[in-house]
Design brief:
2 copies of one chain form a homodimer. By secondary structure, chain A is α/β, with parallel strands linked by helices. Chain A contains 13 helices and 12 strands. In chain A, the strands form 3 sheets. A 7-stranded mixed sheet of chain A has the order 2-8-7-6-5-3-4, sandwiched between helices.
Chain lengths: 399, 399
């Protein structure tokens, strides 16, 4: 019997994967499980996008251009230009979700064994893309006490080796909800110029910035034409997680032409998803206003209510729709399992993502969980009540 | 300015990529270019599949299960069972095209530096998947004189090293149209058992087998439960190249669970494509009969007419819709460029894929081209006439 690969063994399970059986068992017992663990919004996909695919004119669903349909790329470039990002359609590759944009960037920019520095906690799936590409993730730790702000630049400097080839940030951040400031982005700009690194910026939550904070894209920074690489996606912006359409954007022509070779090998990005993505660019402004209002209400409610629970610390997220929350527990992996396997409150419980899965440094995140506020307020209220009672009853409570 | 990766430099351009500018120039001159170079069929996508997406019921396009929708996998398993392949839905991962199935299999089964043996000429994009996964392709040469039959097993044996972890075949074959016989498949079975190798079989052209030849799947072979890995796709079977839906099928549970981890990292396969793929399984039998009749007519016509041209040798393909053809030319790369840049016949010319791109061994395929017969007969007739006249006039003619 042939063995599977070592890198298969290295692949971490997703932070919530080991909880799935316990959630299923809870449901089988008749317990209603409220999902705070996933980034699947309940927001409707724009009608204009659904209509585009419902009115599909084609008789043959053909391969598209490997970089994505030119009409889509041109329209997407116009959107970027409208928010001050100076790119044209030749500087954009349409990808199969933001996931593939990261994979293509890692494959195109980094050799096996090269290193990227990423502030932790970070989006857990970066681990998978890095392992697939043979790239080493070097974490630099941000802290809840500091609302997960960018760690000091000296902490980055201390981690730089001859193999360091890039910095990755997610802005606004999944899982913390932190929005990097203009000053922080400029500090990173200096760092990547000093060490000639790629600056990879995952900006799929760009539209979700609260409290009049403005999003600064890596593409807005001056003098980074060769260094800046932006990842984008329709998943969150238009509530189109399932269509798997993203984008890789850079003014570095070598990078784009190399990434396109990997794109050509897989022929083309999903065709129907591209139709949806292109049509989505005509979404009326009111849609975004409504979505924004909905999320800001959810966030305000969630943060206020969570911080009322004794021992719970929830910094106020400035973007995205996640928050990393500190809980008064011994071990959030155990707590997240216990609340599914051994607890219910009036027939209900909650599923959360344990913090450890978002850290590379062993032992970090053990008293944190990630909560996604992608549910309506009534459901969030129930979830918070369940959590409050659970924390009162959890045997591993630590306060 | 940071450098791109070495593996980016290693990525070969697709066999026809360098011809694209010449084809565009020809079109700008007003020359009609007949495309014999691509595997994009002109056959209509089944109505039942198009209707499924036109009647899209969802209000939110959500992530699907990372392995693909269970309803789709269950239905696909039934189809496989109907052709004697004993698998259930837990032994199937829905992937983003057959491309991703290969990538996941390479990542899951092979470590960087491991080797797979592939009969050449082979589908050129295997190179891209191998480079992305850090895997080395070791070619074993098949010959046009032998209609591209499986090379002798002793040729495989001679190439096996401690790093050899698998054999890859494409059956029916792209680019040769060869269909491996029961005897050849059994020889390969013995080989993989003897050396404990994975047997990767790309079967995306399964339905395109002519002259009453029956397709034998790797999954039909006894005793290979842990070794056999099948790749599939809706692209050719249902003329749905653009939806990017494929499948990875294996009874090796370690492999499936490892591949699923890579699948989880990229969240899910395309959602709309899955709707199309699942609905396609209800395509009426008449569709396949019609398509089969169409292709057999095209093949018979093409093979007969090509072999009438002096110096041209075209073996009769038993499957798929490609044929590797020997031409009386000095260098098929030069000829394929010349016919676009310096030639037209009554305002028309043809684009073909030069043979060298399908071989790993340098110098092989220099007098071969791949021709796809995915055009209607009238167009094929014009293409053959153009080719005949071009060969009479080509300065590098060798006969």
């Amino acid at each position: 019997m042939p063995n599977i690969s070592n890198r298969g063994d290295l692949m971490p399970a997703s932070p919530i994967r080991k909880l799935v059986p316990f959630a299923e068992q809870a449901k089988e017992r008749g317990t209603h499980v409220i999902h705070l663990n996933i980034g699947q919004p309940d927001i409707f996909t724009p009608e204009v996008a659904l209509d585009a695919v419902r009115n599909l004119p084609d008789k043959v669903i053909e391969y598209s251009h490997s970089a994505g349909n030119e009409s889509y790329r041109r329209k997407l470039a116009k959107y970027y230009q409208s928010i001050g990002i100076d790119v044209d359609h030749t500087e954009i590759l349409i990808t199969t979700g933001g996931s593939e944009a990261l994979t293509f960037a890692f494959l195109s920019c980094l050799n096996p064994g090269d290193e990227v520095i990423i502030p932790e906690p970070f989006y857990a799936n970066y681990n998978g893309f890095a392992i697939a590409a043979g790239v080493k993730i070097v974490p630099v730790t941000s802290t809840i006490e500091n609302s997960f702000a960018l760690p000091p630049i000296r902490d980055f400097e201390a981690l730089i080796t001859p193999r360091t080839k890039g910095i990755v940030v997610c802005n606004p951040n999944n899982p913390t909800g932190y929005l990097y400031s203009k000053e922080e982005m400029k500090e990173l700009r200096q760092l990547v110029l000093k060490h000639d690194l790629f600056f990879f910026s995952d900006e799929v939550y760009r539209e979700f910035c609260y409290d009049d904070n403005k999003h600064l894209s890596v593409m807005h920074l001056q003098g980074l034409e060769e260094h800046a690489v932006m990842f984008d996606s329709v998943s969150k912006r238009f509530s189109e997680c399932g269509v798997r359409i993203g984008a890789l954007v850079s003014k570095n022509k070598d990078l784009i032409s190399t990434a396109l070779k990997f794109g050509q090998a897989r022929l083309s990005p999903p065709g129907l998803g591209q139709i949806v993505g292109e049509a989505s660019l005509d979404t009326p402004e009111q849609y975004f206003t409504d979505v924004y209002q909905e999320y800001i209400q959810r966030r305000d409610f969630l943060v206020e209510e969570l911080n009322k629970i004794p021992g719970v610390v929830c910094p106020e997220p400035k973007g995205a729709f996640y928050t990393m929350v500190k809980l008064p527990v011994d071990d959030s992996d155990k707590f997240c399992q216990w609340i599914l396997s051994d607890f219910d409150h009036e027939g209900q419980t909650v599923m959360m993502a344990p913090g450890t899965g978002f850290y590379s440094t062993p032992g970090k995140g053990m008293n944190e969980v990630r909560i996604a506020y992608v549910l309506e307020r009534k459901e969030l209220a129930r979830a918070i009540e369940v959590l409050r009672v659970a924390l009162e009853n959890y045997p591993g409570r630590q306060i």
